[in-house]
Write a structure and sequence with these properties.
Helix content is 22%, strand content 33%.
Length: 197
């Protein structure tokens, strides 16, 4: 009885934390540059699995690679919800006929007009080559500056913020609800960037 009294609260705390870890939250690592400049490579996030997903949320989704038959977690932004009609026209986004602002892209839009992102992408010559002749920052999988996507019911259209680099729904298609692991709510690494997203 004495042992239960002393260790009971601690054991209960551990059990609760384990249950929350399994069913509510999960740590993830950003891999690659598809969410630059919002999220950088190797940053660590906490996602909430029970969050309701909304347009513009940053989410973690499971992507299945048909060639390797492997599934990996990717970090992207929700651009289209189930049933949405998403249109891009020379970097202007409209959803269901209403213009949607994307302030998180402002810096890259500016750099594209200044030097086609050559300074921004100086760390990667392949990225520089992608940007060199790009007519817009957001283009279709075939390089078009104007394109429309009708998102099926039960599906989500996801894109990375680094549009010229990101491999996302433009190439691999929409994601179903079951593919979305959760919403990224908190950055926990690096320490100088800790905070809510």
């Amino acid at each position: 009885m004495k042992l239960l009294k002393e260790w009971g609260p601690f054991a209960l705390f551990i059990i609760v934390m384990l249950l929350l870890r399994v069913y509510v939250w999960q740590p993830v690592i950003v891999e690659g540059h598809s969410m630059d400049p919002t999220l950088a490579n190797k940053e660590r996030l906490v996602i909430i699995k029970t969050a309701s997903i909304k347009r513009q949320d940053i989410v973690v989704a499971k992507e299945y690679n048909k060639e390797t038959q492997e599934t990996k977690n990717i970090v992207k932004r929700v651009i289209g919800m189930p049933g949405d009609t998403v249109t891009f026209n020379n970097d202007v986004l409209t959803v269901n006929g209403q213009e949607v602002k994307e302030p998180y892209l402002a810096n890259y839009h500016k750099q594209l007009s200044v030097d086609h992102l050559q300074q921004t992408y100086q760390y990667n010559s392949f990225f520089q080559s992608l940007a060199k002749n790009a007519k817009a920052f957001t283009i279709s999988a075939t390089g078009q500056t104007t394109f429309t996507v009708k998102v099926p019911q039960g599906q989500y259209f996801l894109m990375g913020d680094n549009r010229l680099v990101s491999q996302d729904s433009r190439q691999v298609g929409n994601f179903s609800k079951k593919d979305i692991v959760g919403e990224a709510k908190l950055r926990i690494w690096p320490f100088k960037k800790i905070g809510l997203l």
